[in-house]
Design brief:
Layout (H helix, E strand, L loop, with lengths): L3 E3 L3 E6 L5 E4 L6 E14 L2 E7 L8 E7 L3 E6 L6 E2 L4 E6 L7 E11 L1
Antiparallel strand pairs: 1-10, 2-10, 3-9, 4-7, 4-8, 4-10, 5-6, 5-9
């Protein structure tokens, strides 16, 4: 019987004083999304958006989570139930930089079947 196993974490970071964060994975295979964690080096007041970037084009993308942080440092998104992605689907994480402070780091955890 196949078992789920985690893959190595995917990470990225962005200094918000230089630009907003816009990161899209390049996994290229079927996977399950386990978690997306965003951590800021200082409390930030920004909007974080996590989107399924569909292999079928922008018309088929959908937002998994969007949250306005107000002087906060962390956002953790864990899908309720299974969140399966097809080969070619990706995860896009965006963070605005309206307040131009701090660095944000994202960590994406995925799983596959053995």
């Amino acid at each position: 019987m196949p078992k789920d196993f985690t893959k190595p974490d995917i990470t990225a970071s962005q200094d918000l004083s230089e630009d907003a964060l816009s990161y899209t994975t390049s996994i290229g295979r079927k996977f399950k999304l386990a978690e997306v964690a965003v951590h800021a080096s200082v409390p930030i007041t920004e909007t974080i958006t996590i989107t399924r970037d569909s292999k079928n084009g922008a018309d088929y993308d959908h937002i998994l989570k969007s949250e306005d942080l107000a002087s906060e440092q962390d956002l953790v998104f864990r899908p309720q139930g299974e969140c399966n992605f097809e080969a070619g689907d990706e995860i896009k994480v965006e963070c605005t930089n309206a307040n131009l402070t701090g660095t944000v780091k994202i960590t994406i955890k995925t799983m596959e079947k053995s």
